[in-house]
Structure formats: structure tokens, C-alpha cells
């Protein structure tokens, strides 16, 4: 069996990073993001990155760390409203941005992982999303052509894996991690726990180990909250 477990994030990414590469990054907001791998990419100094991710993190957290160090050339994202540095770079013309509807982004990654180069969708017809894209009519309705996404490397976060790389996501951390994992030449996963092969229920596996080439244990983690909302204590 090929050894997939690496000592740390830097060693797991060794030989995979290069300037101008295309990354797929799992996670939603700060939920289920590959924190250790993002830190290692930042520390490597690799630049001119194109990153497909649901969002760009927040200032100083998640992919926001790579924006702060100016390592990102282009973002392909759905939601970027919580990152002031993203906004500043975008408005200053320092960052290229391809906005993509959330469901379309998920399908672009799923399609890329399934070897499908493109597909037609009704989402975005008649909006700025459709600019420059092929439009085709099916049964009297217009659809736009969207390209599948297939990156050089995918970085994802899982909950539990076995030594073969079979992986389980925990609750909403499943989000974009599963489709992103398939949409790249190499998938590197960080997980909270690794157990012996055969100890996981086969019916509980979310991502088969064939997709995971390298992995690390990233635990322990600090739970980060994007918006801490509290209400004032009521007094009698």
C-alpha cells in the first residue's frame, strides 16, 4: 500500500507547488477549510495563484492569508463579501475575479472531476455571468455553457480518514470539500484523525481513498467564528 500520511503540511505539498498554478480549495467561509495546508502554501512563497473556492476567507483567516501576502492572481468564487483586502485588491485592479453562482461552481468542479469539459445551465442567463459565454436553446429555453474546473492541486479538510485515504466529512464541513477533491490532478487532505484501514464503515465513506494522494493530521484546531452574534442579557 502506498504511504499517504505525511508528517506535516509542508512535506505533504513538497514538489507540488509552482508559480502560476491552479488550486481548488475546499471549505465554506471558515467551516471545513484546510488551515494547515493554507499556512504551508503561504510559507512556501509560491505566487500568481489561481484559486477556485466558494469564498476568499476573511481578513487574516483562510484564503485571506494568501491575499494578504499577495500570492493570489485570480479568484474563482461565489461569495467574497467578508474580506476587506479582497475588496481593496479587486477595486484597485490588483486581483482578477471570476464570479460564479454557488451551485454552478460546485457543478463545475464536479464536472471537472468526472472528466466533463463543459455543461449548459440556465443559471446566469441574461446577466453579467453570461457575458462572453456560448448561449444555446433547449426546448425554447436559453442556457449558457460553463466550463468544468480541473486544477493542478486540490486542498481539502476532512474529519476522519483511514490509512488508505478513505475519508469522512463532518456535517456541514462536507460543503465544497467533496467536489473539490476530485477536480484536480492531486488531492491533498488534512484531517482531524487517521484510523487503521478497515476500521471505517464502508457505507459511511464520503470520499474514496483513490482520490486522496497525500494527507496530514492537522488537529488540534481552534473553532473560528466569522460573526460572533450575541444578545444582551435580559434583566428582571
How would you describe this structure to a colleague?
The protein has 236 residues and is of the alpha/beta class. It has six helices and 13 strands. It has helices at 9-12, 35-44, 64-68, 84-91, 102-113, 177-182; strands at residues 22-25, 49-52, 72-77, 96-99, 118-121, 135-138, 141-147, 151-157, 160-162, 167-168, 184-191, 193-195, 214-217. The chain has a seven-stranded parallel beta sheet. Strands 5-7-6 form a three-stranded antiparallel beta sheet. It starts with 8 loop residues before the first helix and ends in a 19-residue tail after the last strand. One of its GO terms (molecular function) is transferase activity. Pfam families: CoA_trans (PF01144). This is CoA transferase subunit A.
Summarize the SSE layout with pairings.
Layout: H1 9-12, E1 22-25, H2 35-44, E2 49-52, H3 64-68, E3 72-77, H4 84-91, E4 96-99, H5 102-113, E5 118-121, E6 135-138, E7 141-147, E8 151-157, E9 160-162, E10 167-168, H6 177-182, E11 184-191, E12 193-195, E13 214-217
Parallel strand pairs: 1-2, 1-8, 2-3, 3-4, 8-11, 9-12, 11-13
Antiparallel strand pairs: 5-7, 6-7, 9-10
Beta strand count? 13
Dominant shape: globular
| Poorly predicted sequence stretches spanning 5 or more consecutive residues | none
The fraction of residues assigned to DSSP E strands is: 25-35%
Rg, Å, rounded: 19 Å
Largest sheet: 7 strands, parallel
Helix content: 10-25%
By DSSP (H or I, 4+ residues per run), the number of helices equals: 6
InterPro entries: 3-oxoacid_CoA-transf_A (IPR012792), CoA_trans_fam_I (IPR004165), NagB/RpiA_transferase-like (IPR037171)
Protein name: CoA transferase subunit A
GO molecular function, one term: transferase activity
Keywords: Transferase
